[in-house]
Every structure is written in structure tokens, then in C-alpha cells.
Write a structure and sequence with these properties.
- The chain has 61 residues and is mainly α.
- Helices cover 34% and strands 0% of the residues.
- The longest helix is centred in the first third of the chain and has 12 residues.
- The model has no long low-confidence stretch (mean pLDDT 75).
């Protein structure tokens, strides 16, 4: 079973997608383990200093 998966991975490695950069979306995935929305400035906390997260929240999709 592992051999079949290995072969499939090797065969799919050579395939190339023909998407241009205009078609490919830029995705940024941020995970924060110990923070809730009440501790981030873009959600209304005036004491939190999170300028980069605030900028991403304003400029992101």
C-alpha cells in the first residue's frame, strides 16, 4: 500500500499546473493558539498593539 502511494506521489510530482500569477490567489493562513478575538486590535481592543494584524484585516479580502 505504501509503495502505491509513493509511486503516485512520484508521478504527480512531474505534473505542472498552468496557472498564471493573475489566476493564482495569494493566501495567507495565520494561526494563533492562545489568542481570542478580544486580544486583537482590529476587533476593537484599544490596548492591544497589533499593527500588522490590523493592516492585514483592513487590506485583506
Amino acid at each position: 500500500m505504501n509503495f502505491r502511494i509513493y509511486i503516485l506521489i512520484l508521478l504527480s510530482y512531474g505534473t505542472k499546473f498552468t496557472l498564471t500569477s493573475a489566476q493564482t490567489p495569494n493566501i495567507l493562513w495565520i494561526t494563533i493558539e492562545d489568542t481570542s478575538p478580544q486580544f486583537i486590535g482590529c476587533y476593537g481592543n484599544s490596548d492591544a498593539r497589533t499593527p500588522t494584524i490590523d493592516w492585514i484585516a483592513e487590506e485583506g479580502v
